[in-house]
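step 4 of 6: structure.
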Amino acid sequence: DGGITQSPKYLFRKEGQNVTLSCEQNLNHDAMYWYRQDPGQGLRLIYYSQIVNDFQKGDIAEGYSVSREKKESFPLTVTSAQKNPTAFYLCASSIQTNSPLHFGNGTRLTVT
Amino acid sequence: RKEVEQDPGPFNVPEGATVAFNCTYSNSASQSFFWYRQDCRKEPKLLMSVYSSGNEDGRFTAQLNRASQYISLLIRDSKLSDSATYLCGGPTSYDKVIFGPGTSLSVIP
């Protein structure tokens, strides 16, 4: 079955460490997105990519980095520069800009 | 003004009621919008896409008003299982896909 996979589901890190969240899709979608969700809040866009080897900052990119070396993969690195990294991180993909997004089941990151 | 805005609620309605949510957007060039349902601690699931004036699927109707720049979601004959957070969103400037903060719905027996 085609889908979008995020791993791990839960991740725990110490403050000051960089951590990379995985996102893989086998839907052959061109566009991929990373969102952050805090308790009781909506989705805030971190980074997005419309095509391989190209990506754009979203509304809250500071403290995060991404790469898009392959169409199916869009990993997100949460760096030590991110002030409040504990959150629910959601990856999504879409076939093109005006198409609905398909979401992975998310990674809950806790930094202590 | 935020690119996509929603009334966060919560909306508490009795079973069987009809409830409507509105979502406003600021980019008049936006072509498509989506309503997602999100259950607690889960990923959002697509409920409906809205590309033109509206869309209907069973008890759910979504409408787009381009002149006033809002999208609405109407739920008829509410069920207990409709309790969730409803997110609206769509592509805005520079192909960013932005979501509103979500509207919380609780359907009460």
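step 5 of 6: annotate
 - Chain A has no helices and eleven strands.
 - The radius of gyration of chain A is 13 Å.
step 6 of 6: archive
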